[in-house]
Amino acid sequence: MKSFLFIFICTVFSSNALAALEDISVNLQASQYDGEYLGVVGIGYDFTEQFSTSVDIDTDKYIEIGASYSTIIDTWYLETYVRYGFGDELTTEASDGNELVYQMHIYDLGFLAGKVLTNNVFAYLDTSLQYRAPHHNIALPALVGDNTLAYELSQQTEWNNTLAVDYTPLDWLSLGVSYNFDLLLGDHPYEDSLRDSVDVSVSLNLPYVTPYARYTKGEYRVRPGRPIQDSSYTEVGFYFNF
Description:
By secondary structure, the protein is mainly beta. It has a domain at about 60-225: Porin (Beta Barrel), CATH 2.40.160. It is about 10% helix and about 60% strand. It is built from 2 helices and 15 strands. It has helices spanning about 1-15, 145-150, and strands spanning about 25-35, 35-45, 50-60, 65-75, 75-85, 90-95, 100-105, 105-115, 120-130, 135, 155-170, 175-185, 195-205, 210-220, 230-240. The strands form 2 sheets. The protein has a 12-stranded antiparallel barrel. The radius of gyration is 19 Å and the shape is globular.
């Protein structure tokens, strides 16, 4: 309930205070995950037709700042982007009984290439390298009793990929399906370095607002600062364009 109240307040703010500003986009998301609600608010600004920036914050207090540069060549859409995110400080107990305080810092460098196949179909590949650098107050040898925790609190690199197709049968309706596969690079305590999932989505292309719903099944991170889960969840949200 608190997440939806938070999103409602942001909706009122975005539709009134930001309505007079040009080149602003607002993204509101809400999802139910492991019995709890997770909300995300994002604001983007287009400095030019090619260069844009964004800031996201969720109810886990994870903040992400990003910038992208895009261009269109014939029927191809090309985009490069960078993102930096950091979460709130968290506390847990290490295997030696000491209190462990840590904070996650995540860096992304990515490239997206999309092509218009027909008037109604757009396909794209989104690929990126993600570097996770946790900051903590004690040395990792103190966590030797828990290999998974020790790995989650060590530096990691992951190669993330998405293959997707969007179909727009009507001007006001878009359908999408994507396959996501992420590979852990380097040593890790898991049996398999591959994590994959499938998304299906539907969105309504209305004036000034695009409501959508997305269902995900497989192994994934519901948010960058969260651990990988093998489950499913449904996300609903809105994109506001001014």
